[in-house]
């Protein structure tokens, strides 16, 4: 196959590993910076130009799209889809996953467990909002945050109200969420490919921190998931419509609760923690699934 990786930087660990894995398996691979693509959207033969040349019709494209370039990079991915290139993850599904509210609404509709969550823009009635999720302590999240940025723990009612007022002042969209205390600053990252969890790690927040993101100093170790946790992760990825996903789950008293579903999950942490060739498994998935014009992940919404 000839595989394109949509990535801004070929030196990033995940991109490097995907290149390596594709070559090892005998494929040709090109790294395309989505921001340098020019699209011909009107002609009968939709095409993408890159450094003045028309790009070939790849057999598959692996989007590795950073949050800050979502808008344009998704347009480029859509263009590849129109051209019949098989995407590891479809643009629609990535769009859903980038909006925490939208994906949580989809997960709720599908009956996937998650912490009690309320959404607000400029609530006049801060107290109702706080009461909805069972009062303090609670977690506040900016809708577009990643890597733990924009996620705040308010330990008291007063702190919660102050943060909500601040977000309101900033005109920000945010979620208010029940704090899962029993998670103990840990969460599970389940790496899903197709309908299987292929690798999983437990991330533990550093001392004095409740966010377990590796970017926030969390540490990772290998973990064995229960059948229920596996099923929840696969269900969450499917509901959002992702073939390749990093599903974040906390262990609640009554079972697994999904926090979010990531569409460009990093490979470094999970490969290091588990010793697995996750990049190779992503390529293996494409070998099985990629056909011209075949998109298989039509989720809902
Ligand atoms: P981000 O997209 O910034 O990673 P997350 O929703 O995944 O945002 O939150 C970051 C981290 O904060 C999680 O990995 C988890 O450790 C912690 N966390 C988030 N929400 C909760 C919650 N409701 N209860 C307990 N811990 C939480
Ligand atoms: Mg997260």
Biggest sheet strand order reads 14-13-12-15-16
DSSP summary: helix tally: 9
List the domain count as a whole number. Answer: 3
CATH class of the largest domain: Alpha Beta
What is the percent of helical residues?
25-40%
Distinct ligand kinds: adenosine-5'-diphosphate, magnesium ion
Order of helices and strands: EHEEEEEHEHHEHEEHEEEEHEEHH
* Class computed from helices, strands and strand pairing: alpha+beta
Please mark out the parts with pLDDT under 50 across 5 or more consecutive residues, or reply none: 297-301
The biggest beta sheet, please? 5 strands, antiparallel
Alpha carbon gyration radius: 20 Å
CATH topology of the largest domain: Rossmann fold
CATH architecture of the largest domain: 3-Layer(aba) Sandwich
Percent of residues in β-strands = 25-35%
Note the gap between the termini. Answer: 32 Å
Mean pLDDT across the residues is: 92
Described by its quaternary structure, the protein is single chain
Quick one: how many beta strands?
16
Tell me, briefly, the overall form: globular
């Amino acid at each position: 196959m000839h595989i394109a990786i949509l990535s801004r930087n070929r030196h990033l660990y995940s991109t490097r590993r995907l290149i390596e894995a594709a070559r090892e398996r005998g494929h040709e691979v090109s790294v395309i910076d989505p921001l340098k693509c020019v699209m011909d959207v009107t002609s009968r033969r939709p095409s993408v130009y890159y450094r003045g040349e028309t790009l070939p019709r790849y057999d598959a494209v692996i989007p590795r799209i950073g949050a800050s370039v979502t808008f344009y990079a998704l347009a480029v991915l859509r263009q590849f889809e129109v051209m019949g290139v098989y995407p590891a993850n479809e643009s629609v599904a990535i769009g859903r996953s980038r909006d925490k509210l939208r994906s949580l609404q989809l997960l709720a509709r599908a009956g996937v467990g998650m912490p009690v969550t309320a959404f607000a823009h400029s609530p006049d009635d801060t107290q109702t909002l706080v009461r909805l999720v069972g009062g303090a302590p609670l977690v506040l999240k900016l809708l577009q945050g990643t890597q733990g940025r924009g996620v705040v723990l308010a330990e008291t009612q007063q702190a919660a109200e102050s943060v909500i007022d601040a977000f309101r002042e900033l005109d920000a969209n945010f979620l208010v969420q029940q704090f899962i205390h029993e998670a103990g600053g840990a969460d599970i990252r389940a790496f899903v490919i197709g309908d299987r969890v292929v690798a999983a790690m437990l991330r533990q927040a550093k001392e004095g921190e409740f966010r377990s993101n590796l970017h926030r100093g969390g540490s990772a170790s290998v973990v064995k998931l229960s059948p229920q946790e596996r099923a929840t992760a696969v269900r969450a990825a499917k509901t959002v419509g992702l073939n390749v996903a990093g599903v974040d789950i906390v262990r609640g008293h009554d079972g697994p609760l999904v926090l979010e579903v990531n569409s460009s999950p990093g490979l470094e942490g999970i490969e290091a923690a588990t010793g697995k060739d996750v990049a190779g498994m992503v390529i293996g998935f494409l070998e099985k699934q990629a056909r011209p014009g075949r998109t298989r992940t039509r989720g809902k919404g």
